[in-house]
Amino acid sequence: MKNNKIFSVSDINKYIKALIDMDYILNSIWVQGEISNFRKHTSGHLYFTLKDQNSAISCIMFRSSVYALNFEPKNGMHVMIQGAVSVYEKSGQYQIYVNKMERAGIGVLYEAFERLKRDLEAEGLFRQENKKPIPPFPKCIGIVTSPTGAAIKDIIQVSKRRNPNIELALYPALVQGEDAPKSIAEAIHALNEWGQADVLIVGRGGGSIEDLWAFNEEMVARAIYASKIPVISAVGHETDFTIADFVSDLRAPTPSAAAELAVPSRNEYISKVSNILRTLNQLIDKRISFYNNRLVGIQNRVIFKKPLELVYRRQQELDYLEKNLHKHINDQLRNYKTHLIHKINTLETLSPLNTLTRGYSIVMDDHGQTISSIDDVKTNDHINIRMKDGVITAWVEEARKEVEKDNAKEKTFNF
Q: Exonuclease VII large subunit C-terminal domain: which residues (predicted)?
């Protein structure tokens, strides 16, 4: 051990980089493959994996070379790249530093993805109106993923952090390989038959398009669509889109994000409830203060402070009205009396009794009818003569009409 030289990791990476950089073949090579894990950095550099059916290699294309591209690279695209193989010393990862890129056709997997996506979309599996709402307060969350992957760890960690009271039910499933689609579909069916979960999270961690391909299979898509329980898809990273994402009721960019969407935060709800409680108490205090002020105001009213004062005021008003009423009645009686006296005086002036006092008399028959002409009586008729102080009863002995002399009239009666 003492005779052996000890190298640092940096020394090893630097040495391997130097060896690769000296290789004239690796300094300028053309490589054909399918783009996967494509990512465009804000700096303008392109990061992706170039792969075939059996292997993959990391690639980077700097912004100075990206400007020369006449197409937009994307996942699933078959390309021919020219560049140099070298080592990124910090991570010890070898990769191709791409100088040129030419399109070599769309990958087989990408074509299959697009074909199935078109067919299922035409059937209506992606329609928004067919998607079920995610329950806001689930009691149990069913999880379909690998029991040993990073996804389940992330989901459990986020779920327990947000709300440890919500039950998590894991149904283990293969998420990669030939048997994965069947395993995922059976897990979804099984959790639906179990019926205890309020929402399902179906997914896995990141990987290449081949790694994620199980979630692009029609069997998985139809199982998600047939699920009576709402399904949240959580496949790969944010840039990865699968058929499961389109057909699920809600797509989460990552498994951790799926847990964030499915599990309501206990602290957030406690905070919301506390805020509501505080607001409610403030409103109650405000209302109590308002009605208390009203009560004090009512208690301070005169009716409660001096209840008899209102009675006294009413009595005073009653006295005033009574006084006015008496005055009005007396005035009316006085007016009526004056008017009556005037009428009496008028009647007395016109009364025939006054004429009788001057020596005249009134002759009437037995029926009280005044006899004003000798034509009204005949011999032996019974007549009554009204004097100023009594009545004389007499019989007509003779009724003789006088001849008018000197335009004077005279009546002669014999008693």
A: 125-339
pLDDT, average across residues 112-124: 91
Q: What's the average model confidence in pLDDT over 321-327?
A: 95
Q: Is the pTM of this model over 0.70?
A: no
**Secondary structure (H, E, C), the chain:** CCCCCCCCHHHHHHHHHHHHHHCCCCCCEEEEEEEEEEEECCCCCEEEEEECCCCEEEEEECHHHHCCCCCCCCCCEEEEEEEEEEEECCCCEEEEEEEEEEEEEECHHHHHHHHHHHHHHHHCCCCHHHCCCCCCCCCEEEEEECCCCHHHHHHHHHHHHHCCCCEEEEEECCCCCCCHHHHHHHHHHHHHHHCCCCEEEEEECCCCCCCCHHHHCHHHHHHHHHCCCCEEEEECCCCCCCHHHHHCCEEECCHHHHHHHHCCCHHHHHHHHHHHHHHHHHHHHHHHHHHHHHHHHHHCCHHHHCHHHHHHHHHHHHHHHHHHHHHHHHHHHHHHHHHHHHHHHHHHHHCHHHHHHCCCCEEECCCCCECCCHHHCCCCCEEEEECCCCEEEEECCCEECCCCECCECCCEECC
Model confidence over 177-210: pLDDT tens digits?
A: 889 999 999 999 999 999 999 999 999 998 777 7
